[in-house]
C-alpha cells in the first residue's frame, strides 16, 4: 500500500512541474484563493506575512526580492540564516497594514488567508489592491479549506501536498524562476516518498493511533489538537496511523479526558519559539503530560512515545514534508509491544 502511494505522489506532481519548462509570459494572470491577480513583471520587492511564504521564496533563491517578513513560529531554516539576517522582520506576529505598506512592496506573499482575507487581521486583499499591491496567498491554506467558519478554518477535503507544490510552482512563475521551482518540487517529492517508504518498511501495528498537540491557551485546559484533514492528518494517513481526533476543523479544542479515553499510542507535540500561550513551551508540555493525573496515565506518556515536531511542520507548509520525515524516523525507534 505505501509503495503504491509513493508512485501516486510522483505522478500527481507531474502536472504541477510542467509549467516550469517555459519562461513566464507577462502579464501573468492567476486565480489565487478565489481572487484573480495579474502580475505585470517579476516583483522586485516583497513583504511576507507568514513563515511558509518566506521560506519558499528563500528556497527559490529570491531572498534578494524580500524586504520585510512577519509571523514567525521558529527560527528560519538553517540554510537560509545568512540570507535572512539583513531582511527586516517587521513583526514577529501579525504586522500592521501600515508596516507592510511602508515597505512599498510589489507583492505581499501570505501564509494564512485570515491575515488578508475578507476579514483580514492585517488588511483585506482589496485594501492592498487599491494601492496597486498584489497579494498571493499560499494555496495550502485555501484549497480544500473553508476559512469563513472562524478560528483556524475547516477542511472541506483532506489536505494534499499537491497544494504545497502548486504554491511553489505558481510563485516560481510569478518571479520567472521556473527551474528553481521545478528543482524544489522534485526534491520535496523525493523526500516525501522516502519517508513513506521508511514507514512501510517498519513492522507497525495495524491499529496504530496518534494525536497531535499544537498548544493550549493555558496548561490543563482543552488543547488545540489536529483534526483529521489538515497537515498532521495527512502525515498520519500516509504513515498508516489512525488519528483519534475525529473532527474536520483544522485545530479543534478537545478535552484531555476525551483524549485519554481514546488513549493514542503516540503523542506528537509542537515545539516553537513563539510564546503566545503557556503551552507553546515544549518543556511545559512535557511537564504537564508527566504530572497531570489524567494525561500521566496515557499509554503514550507511560511508554515515552512522545515525538517533538517543529510547530511549523504541523501547518500546511513546505515543512510538513520535514514533519513527515520526523514522524517516520521517530516510529522507527519505538517499540509497541508494551
Notes on the protein architecture:
- By secondary structure, this protein is α/β, with parallel strands linked by helices.
- The chain contains 14 helices and 14 strands.
- The strands form four sheets. Strands 5-4-3-6-7 form a five-stranded parallel β-sheet. Strands 10, 11, 12, 13 and 14 form a five-stranded mixed β-sheet that branches.
- α1 (about 1-10) runs antiparallel to α9, α8 runs antiparallel to α9 (about 180-200) and α9 runs parallel beside α14.
- The two termini are about 25 Å apart.
- Mean pLDDT is about 90; it is low at about 1-20.
The amount of helix comes to 25-40%
Query: What topology, given as strand order, has the largest sheet?
Result: 5-4-3-6-7
List how many beta strands DSSP finds.
14
The major pleated sheet works out as:
5 strands, parallel
Radius of gyration: 20 Å
Please write the string of helix (H) and strand (E) elements: HHEEEHEHEHEHHEEEHHEEHEHEHHEH
Mean pLDDT: 92
How many helical stretches? 14
List the helices and strands and how they pair.
Blueprint: H1 2-12, H2 14-18, E1 28-32, E2 35-39, E3 46-49, H3 51-59, E4 66-70, H4 81-84, E5 89-91, H5 97-101, E6 107-110, H6 113-116, H7 125-130, E7 134-137, E8 145-146, E9 154-155, H8 162-174, H9 178-200, E10 209-215, E11 224-225, H10 231-238, E12 242-243, H11 256-262, E13 266-271, H12 282-291, H13 299-302, E14 306-310, H14 319-331
Parallel strand pairs: 3-4, 3-6, 4-5, 6-7, 10-12, 10-13, 13-14
Antiparallel strand pairs: 1-2, 8-9, 10-11
Helix pairs in contact: 1-9, 8-9, 9-14, 10-14
Amino acid at each position: 500500500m505505501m509503495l503504491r502511494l509513493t508512485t501516486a505522489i510522483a505522478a500527481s506532481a507531474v502536472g504541477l512541474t510542467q509549467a516550469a519548462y517555459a519562461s513566464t509570459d507577462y502579464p501573468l494572470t492567476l486565480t489565487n484563493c478565489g481572487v484573480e491577480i495579474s502580475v505585470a513583471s517579476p516583483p522586485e520587492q516583497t513583504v511576507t506575512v507568514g513563515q511558509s511564504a518566506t521560506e519558499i521564496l528563500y528556497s527559490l533563491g529570491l531572498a534578494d526580492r524580500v524586504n520585510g517578513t512577519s509571523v514567525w513560529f521558529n527560527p528560519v531554516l538553517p540554510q537560509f540564516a545568512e540570507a535572512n539576517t539583513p531582511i527586516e522582520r517587521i513583526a514577529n506576529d501579525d504586522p500592521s497594514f501600515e508596516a507592510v505598506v511602508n515597505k512599498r512592496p510589489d507583492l505581499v506573499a501570505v501564509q494564512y488567508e485570515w491575515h488578508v482575507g475578507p476579514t483580514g487581521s492585517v488588511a483585506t486583499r482589496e485594501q492592498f489592491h487599491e494601492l496597486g499591491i498584489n497579494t498571493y496567498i499560499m494555496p495550502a491554506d485555501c484549497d480544500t479549506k473553508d476559512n469563513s467558519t472562524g478560528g483556524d478554518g475547516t477542511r472541506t477535503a483532506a489536505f494534499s501536498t499537491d497544494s504545497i507544490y502548486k504554491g511553489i510552482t505558481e510563485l516560481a512563475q510569478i518571479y520567472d524562476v521556473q527551474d528553481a521551482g521545478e528543482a524544489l518540487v522534485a526534491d520535496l517529492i523525493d523526500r516525501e516518498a522516502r519517508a513513506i517508504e521508511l514507514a512501510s518498511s517498519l513492522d507497525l501495528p495495524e491499529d496504530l493511533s496518534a494525536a497531535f498537540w499544537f498548544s493550549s491557551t493555558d496548561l490543563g485546559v482543552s488543547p488545540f489538537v489536529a483534526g483529521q484533514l489538515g497537515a498532521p492528518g495527512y502525515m498520519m494517513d500516509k504513515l498508516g496511523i489512525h488519528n483519534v481526533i475525529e473532527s474536520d476543523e483544522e485545530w479543534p479544542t478537545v478535552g484531555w479526558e476525551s483524549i485519554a479515553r481514546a488513549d493514542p499510542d503516540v503523542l506528537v507535540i509542537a515545539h516553537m519559539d513563539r510564546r503566545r500561550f503557556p503551552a507553546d513551551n515544549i518543556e511545559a508540555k512535557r511537564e504537564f503530560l508527566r504530572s497531570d493525573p489524567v494525561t500521566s496515565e496515557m499509554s503514550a506518556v507511560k511508554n515515552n512515545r512522545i515525538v517533538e515536531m517543529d510547530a511549523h511542520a504541523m501547518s500546511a507548509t513546505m515543512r510538513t514534508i520535514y514533519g513527515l520525515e520526523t514522524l517516520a524516523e521517530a516510529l522507527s525507534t519505538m517499540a509497541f509491544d508494551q
